[in-house]
Write a structure and sequence with these properties.
The chain is an alpha+beta fold. Helices cover 34% and strands 24% of the residues.
C-alpha cells in the first residue's frame, strides 16, 4: 500500500512538472535582438521627376529614385531610373594635400562597366559619364564639408594628415536609363540629377549631425 501511495505521489508530481513546463514554454518569448538607433545609418529616400531628353513633350518625365545612407565611415548614394535596380557601382576617395593645396579625386568602378540598353554611347562614353557624375557629387560634398567647417571653398581641411579625407569614401550606384532615341543626357538633366542628390545629402547631413550641432553657431 505504501508503494502504491508513493507511486501515485510521484506520478502526480511529474504531471505537475510537465504542466508547469508547458505553461512556461507557452509564455516564454523568443529573444529578440535589436540594434541601437545610434548604430544605424542615417537613411533617406526621395523620388524626383527628370525630363526625358529624347522626348519633345515636356510633360514626359522619368521618375528618378535617390537613396542616401550615411554611415560613420562611408556615404552610400543610389540614383536609379531603372525601377529600383542599382546599375553600376562606383567609389570615390577624396584626398587633400597641404603641400600644394590640392584636392584629388580617385574614382574606380566596382561593378558594371557595360553600356545601358538602348544607348547610342560607347562603353568608354558610358563609363566617362558615370565617373563625371560621381566626381561632381563628390566635389559638391567637399564644398559642403568646407562650408560647414567655416572655411573657404578653396581651403584644405587637413583631414589627410590623419589618413582621412574631407569626406568619407563615397559609394555611388548609378542606374541612369538612356533617353528615347539613345540620345545623351543633356546638361540640364545632368545638373538636375546632381542637384537633387546633393539636396538629399545636405538634409541627411543635418539629421546625422543634429545632436552635435545643438548650441553651435553656423559660419557667417
Amino acid at each position: 500500500m505504501v508503494a502504491d501511495d508513493t507511486q501515485q505521489i510521484s506520478e502526480s508530481m511529474e504531471n505537475e512538472c510537465n504542466i508547469a513546463e508547458e505553461q512556461s514554454s507557452a509564455t516564454k518569448q523568443p529573444k529578440q535582438y535589436r540594434p541601437k538607433a545610434s548604430s544605424l545609418p542615417t537613411s533617406l529616400v526621395h523620388t524626383v521627376q527628370i525630363k526625358d531628353d529624347g522626348d519633345n513633350d515636356d510633360k514626359n518625365e522619368v521618375p528618378t529614385t535617390i537613396i542616401l545612407q550615411i554611415f560613420s565611415d562611408r556615404i552610400f548614394l543610389s540614383i536609379t531610373q531603372l525601377s529600383g535596380k542599382m546599375g553600376s557601382l562606383l567609389v570615390c576617395n577624396v584626398e587633400e594635400s597641404i603641400i600644394d593645396n590640392s584636392t584629388t579625386y580617385h574614382i574606380s568602378t566596382l561593378l558594371g562597366t557595360g553600356v545601358a540598353r538602348g544607348s547610342g554611347n560607347s562603353a568608354e562614353q558610358e563609363v566617362s559619364l558615370r565617373e563625371v557624375c560621381v566626381r561632381r557629387l563628390a566635389e559638391r560634398m567637399v564644398l559642403h564639408a568646407r562650408k560647414m567647417a567655416g572655411v573657404g571653398e578653396g581651403s584644405i581641411l587637413g583631414g589627410s594628415e590623419n589618413g582621412t579625407g574631407p569626406i568619407p569614401p563615397l559609394v555611388v550606384g548609378l542606374g541612369l536609363r538612356s533617353s528615347k532615341g539613345g540620345k545623351r543626357m543633356s546638361v540640364e538633366s545632368f545638373n538636375a540629377v546632381v542637384d537633387a542628390a546633393i539636396e538629399l545629402y545636405e538634409e541627411g547631413w543635418k539629421i546625422c549631425h543634429s545632436a552635435g550641432m545643438v548650441g553651435m553657431e553656423g559660419p557667417d
